[in-house]
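Let us work through a complete example step by step.
Step 1: write down the sequence.
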Amino acid sequence: MKTDYKVPDHMTIPPSSAFYLAFGAQAGLDYLSFQRRLAILVGQDAWIAIILAAIFMHIGIWFMYSLLNRQQTDLISINKRMFGSLIGGGFNIVLIINFLIISAMSVRLYAEIIKIWIFPDLQVGVLIFLLLLLAYYIVAGGFRVIVGFFLFAQASIALIVIYAILMPYYHLSNLLPVWSHSFTELFEATWSMLPGYLGIEALLIFYPFIKNGKKAQVWSQWGNTVTMVIYLMAFIFSMMFYSLGQLKEEYWPILTLFKFVELPFMERVEFIGASFQIFRLVPLLAMFVWMAIQSTKLQFNVSKRKTLPIFLILVLAGSLAFKDSQQVMAIYRIASYFGFALIFVYVPILALLSRFKGAV
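Step 2: predict the structure and record it as tokens.
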């Protein structure tokens, strides 16, 4: 089956770009605080849950490509093709709302990080407004500009050098004993870790922009693997640095690590860690805003330039509705159930329906 619309070649990206799109989209809201949650659930055995969650997401990626490779279009068009304009359109509206909610949560969380760690007297609304202006510039440039920012965002990986600097403070004994929790506890921790791998569902919208999308699956799978490695490093080094009791109480384990780094040219190194999170936020924010306007264009045939400022205003209003970072993360945990249902229930059902209709 062919796509309902043709993306011009100059607007497409190579299959290899799916690698850093997958990694960049996944390492989002959960990266800075997931260690505390896992430490409470399974302590030093959390590395097992991180690996199991990654395996589940590998399966979810396979289902997404199974559907997309067969239909050769995005989820918005597939919904209308499968269920008609009325029911399929209803599903698409839910998707658009979800993309806007994620955008609002992402930008508010970053503003809270800057307020807590750098500028306590900062008016978060001002910072959010400036970030949304930057998002407007990026999204208006088109999908390839967003992809370029995702590539540039990989510079944030350089911060893992902090783990090496803190080597004298590590205690390997903190990782023992191994496998001291039940399968039920590990399953609960795995379920709790899955939101850290969400974001990859963006593939369901930008798939038509990949040149020869069938070759992109292996790159997306590798991106998911790198995300797993980053999470493993973040947890293991945090576990060796803190005691289990300390990790259970530390809300921002990664950022707190920077406080113990001493550099001759800078006293407050945690400012670097907090500021560098903008490399994660900006492309992620731009991606989900773009997904919302792209979905709106496909569903209602409305120009992106008309919907972009309207959606950014909605994101601004939605982000200011949150009370603080704890409330953002609490709502994110609830919203993540939608991502689970989308990847592990809805997409597999569509994939099966697609195969059935093809056979008929």
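Step 3: interpret the result. The mean pLDDT is 90.
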